[in-house]
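User: Predict the structure for this protein chain, please.
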Amino acid sequence: MSTENNISTKTSGQLFAGSGDAPGNRNVYFLGIGGIGMSALARYFNELGYKVSGYDKTVTPLTLQLKREGISVHYTDDITLADSQAGLVVYTPAVPKDHAEFNFFKKNNYNLKKRSEVLGLITKDGRNICVAGTHGKTTTSAMIAHLLTNSGYGCNAFLGGIATNYDSNFLSSKDAAACVVEADEYDRSFLQLSPDVAVITAMDADHLDIYGTEKNMQDAFIQFSEKIKPGGLLLVKKGLQRNKEFKAGKKLSYHLSDSTADIYVENIQVQEGKYLFDVQVEDKKLAGLEFNMGGQHNIENMLAAIAVGIHLQINEDAIRKAVSSFKGVKRRFETLLKTNNVVLIDDYAHHPEELRALINGAKELYPGWHSTIVFQPHLYSRTQDHASGFAEVLSTADESFLLPIYPAREEPIAGVSSELISREMTNKNRLVTKEELLELIKNKTSEIKEKQLFIMAGAGDIDILLLPVKQLLEVNS
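Assistant: Here is the predicted structure, written as structure tokens:
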């Protein structure tokens, strides 16, 4: 992949203009490089041959992988460790206002740009497939990227999760015919994008700390639809509120089972842990599709990917092959352990509707199994806004364990804790620390007599528990 083929002279000028102390310099520095969206951009610039480095507050498997790829990463907020020659400094809105490195770059008039602005600039002049939604967007983006890559159509893809087929959140193609971009609604980032094809998967109330009201959030999605280029296509989940207000040259609806949608599924069967089904896309029918990812909500996500493939005139057999070979996304209905009597599923779910789809999908694949969910709430504000919804959904499991809230970018809110959820739950549940959870599961493994379904969910640091939990469950499985 060459710079000339992927960043035009005009775009390069927009990216690196006004470089402060380092005019014309092509070093790129990332504040928050370990973030899933930031790291995809870092990989993009690194592959183009730029000198890429960055800061993140925590060592993670992703930051270690970036270092193995030749990207310098440090973990102390120290301006002496930052790249003083950076011609472009990319930052995430999650960077705190008192961050020393951020304030150094700002004070010295460096070329500071938000991640969303950079992503918007480098994709502006190409053919873009942009996937938005309060949930489902990461999996759907990865499905589309895999379909385009596996079929030979080719794409560059900036994903919000690690695609299992490629073990990366950035996909590149020498002859990329399109860019696949996960369009993030947080901080209205997706309004920087220029879609040729846009997908809207869901519009449930979320990020009310940013938007204030559900209506304001919905307004932003309508504005996103207005960014679609003339003659472009919008694929929208049927039944979303204010559907009629979305703007596009052509608009198609999709739905798992509603035959009044333009795109829907027929003849779903569950067979040995996989799905078999047919798809109707307007007047075209694709029969005999095989899908190996759990959860009917993921079949619905795949509908959008299939519709994109047909819109791009990709061969039907190539679409079938891509659907059957898709291995999923890390932490999206990911099966970590599967034996005759114990299954462990992990998911990034952090909204009540995501949890509902996760629990229902897992129970569908493993009917009659005793279900235990471990959930780590993400953000004080989200917990406050959705405590009743979380309680209702988590109560559908036989047993629930709740970890303390993962604060991410937020300060504590008085009276808001995981207990806010627990007190409204109707099933057997318990508040636990990480250490207590491991001890409980260790004791529980010796009691396993019936088939046990374990689900771990959350968008914080619950992933550090996955390996020890898996090892404990393997002992008596």
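DSSP finds 16 helices and 21 strands in the chain.
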